[in-house]
Design goal:
Blueprint lengths: L1 H27 L13 E7 L3 H12 L6 E8 L5 H11 L3 E6 L9 H11 L4 E4 L4 E3 L4 H6 L8 E3 L2 E3 L6 H23 L10 E4 H6 L15 H7 L5 E3 L7 E3 L5 H14 L5 H26 L4 H25 L9 H21 L7
Parallel strand pairs: 1-2, 1-4, 2-3, 6-9, 7-10
Antiparallel strand pairs: 4-8, 5-10, 6-8
Helix pairs in contact: 1-6, 1-10, 1-11, 2-3, 6-12, 9-12
């Protein structure tokens, strides 16, 4: 029995190494990108529902972008606070801001995709750049750097949406490590030619991509997924690329309680069940191999069975993962989370297991 367990453990380690050395290394060791400005017109899309404090703080940062031709589409999704009033003041203040007012619709009650669709249809530019209402760009060159990756063939650009650092907060390190690992996954698979998701905090695509698939219609009944489900549907090896220059990052405030973050991740995870079969399999295999790696290692070491072999495999796996994720963290300005990597990884794996089990018995709450 223990011999079989050892063989199984070796297979699991091999699977983990394959992910890191074959897939994730594609991003970890990628060359630095050059941001060559493109002369394209861009509509920046911001959809907000009850985000008065955030939009008051962040919309001016969007309006002050150093870009030659862009408009900002502010979508108020039937807010009950002062978001609409703030948007109306910004529309008066900035000539390139246009406001879209969304009223609740019985068929699409509380559905962000409905609001986004109205905003996209009102956009006058051919290229769309999305950012959430609680996010802000890392620089005045955010639009320039994101749009620099567009070509005649590459009509979808996946960006990095980071979270602010909070001093002396272990939860903050968990959140940022999870964000880092997620980005490494979708960036790496995109470089391999198998893009499967993007994040609405930092995402750009040509408007025709939206109309080619009739927008969100194929998954309009799903409350979330305006970013990852849409990209999973339309992205291919030919039309999708990534942008990871620091000037292209966006930042948002992270959750400050474990419960808040846990519920946020429940919403994100719930859409993954609707991905294409290959994408679901590769994500599930990666997570299961992570979980089994720890369980089998602990089991074998508890019985001290071939402990030298087991510890050697554990050490080699950690060396490889630390190097790959370390280089990736350097690119995405998240190096400090790697000091806590072994502990954070264990916490994150079992948190994800808890999320999976919880989602089996109850549905997460979506758009406000």
């Amino acid at each position: 029995m223990l011999l079989f367990t050892l063989y199984f453990f070796i297979v699991i380690v091999a699977i983990q190494l394959a992910y890191y050395l074959i897939v994730f290394a594609k991003f970890a060791f990628a060359k630095a990108q050059k941001a060559t400005p493109k002369k394209i017109s861009v509509s920046v899309i911001v959809c907000a529902k009850n985000e008065a404090d955030n939009v008051a703080r962040y919309i001016p940062l969007l309006a002050e972008q150093d870009y030659h031709d862009y408009e900002i589409i502010l979508i108020d999704d039937a807010s009950s606070d002062t978001t609409l009033e703030i948007f109306e003041e910004f529309e008066k203040q900035y000539s390139n801001i246009r406001l879209v007012k969304v009223r609740n619709n019985e068929a699409f009650w509380g559905n962000k995709k409905y609001a986004l669709t109205l905003g996209i249809k009102s956009a006058k530019k051919d290229y769309l750049l999305f950012i959430d209402a609680d996010c802000y760009p890392s620089s005045k060159d955010w639009i320039t750097t994101m749009c620099s990756q567009f070509t005649m063939q590459k009509t979808i650009v996946l960006g990095y949406g980071a979270y602010e650092k909070v001093a002396k907060s272990f939860l903050n390190k968990i959140i940022r490590f999870e964000t880092l690992l997620t980005a490494v996954q979708y960036f790496s698979w995109t470089k391999i030619g198998k893009p499967y998701m993007g994040i609405g905090r930092n995402l750009a695509y040509k408007k025709e991509e939206f109309y080619n698939v009739n927008g969100f219609i194929s998954h309009i009944q799903v409350r979330s997924g305006d970013d990852d489900l849409f990209i999973n549907q339309v992205a291919t090896s030919k039309n999708t690329t990534i942008c990871y220059t620091p000037e292209s990052f966006t930042y948002s405030q992270p959750k400050t309680t474990f419960k808040g973050w846990f519920n946020q991740k429940r919403r994100h995870v719930s859409t993954a069940t609707l991905y294409k079969p290959f994408d679901k399999i590769q994500l599930a295999l990666f997570y299961v191999s992570q979980l089994l790696f720890f369980i089998l290692a602990i089991l074998l070491l508890a019985f001290q069975y071939q402990w030298i072999i087991v510890l050697s495999l554990v050490g080699f796996r950690y060396l490889v993962t630390w190097i790959i994720l370390g280089f990736s963290a350097g690119k995405l300005k998240e190096k400090d989370v790697m000091y806590w990597f072994p502990i954070i990884e264990i916490v994150l794996i079992f948190t994800q297991l808890n999320i999976f089990i919880t989602n089996l018995f109850s549905k997460p709450v979506h758009w406000k």
